[in-house]
Amino acid sequence: MAQNRTILVPNPRQTGFQIMDVLLTMAIVAILLSIAVPSYQQQVLKARRQATLLHMQVLGLRQEAYHLQHGTYGELGDLEVEPNEHYDFSAENVGNGTYRLIATAVGQQQEDRACQRLSMDQSLNKTPADCW
């Protein structure tokens, strides 16, 4: 009894990836990254800004507590300001009835062009309004 054996030889065009497959995949990934990375970077800037705005509100509460105890608003040194690597904090017009807290963007946060200088005063006037 003779057995018929058929040997299948793979077609060389059907094995592995061709250079066009790899190039097409790389082009798709590059397009997706060109869309995703700027969006991600904007969200990072916005998240840092939001954290700073929250910190400024905490500083405002500390100012009010200081005012209750001392009859005047305090300088930043009196308020235990935590260091922030994305914003520098300062205070202006500190006195018996007024203060203005200012956060100025530093480093990469300066890419947040419209919101580089954030401020809040004792009456909760916040500028720029679009950043709050």
Keywords:
single chain; 132 residues; alpha+beta; four-stranded antiparallel beta sheet; 39% helix; rod-shaped
Report on this model:
- The chain is α+β, with helices and mostly antiparallel strands.
- It has one helix and four strands; from the N terminus they run αββββ.
- The chain has a four-stranded antiparallel sheet, covered by helices on one side.
- The chain is rod-shaped and about 110 Å long.
- The model has no long low-confidence stretch (mean pLDDT 89).
The radius of gyration computed from the alpha-carbon positions, rounded to a whole number of angstroms, is: 30 Å
Order of helices and strands: HEEEE
Strand order of the largest sheet: 1-2-3-4
Q: Helix amount, in percent?
A: 25-40%
Low-confidence stretches: none
| Oligomeric state of shown chains | single chain
Largest sheet: 4 strands, antiparallel
Class per helix and strand makeup: alpha+beta
Distance between the termini: 89 Å
Strand content: 5-15%
- Inertia-based shape: rod-shaped
Number of helices: 1
Q: Can you give the mean pLDDT? A: 89
Would you summarize the structure shown here?
By secondary structure, the protein is α+β, with helices and mostly antiparallel strands. The chain is built from 1 helix and 4 strands, in the order H-E-E-E-E.
Task: Itemize the secondary structure elements and their pairings.
Layout: H1 19-70, E1 87-92, E2 100-105, E3 117-121, E4 126-127
Antiparallel strand pairs: 1-2, 2-3, 3-4
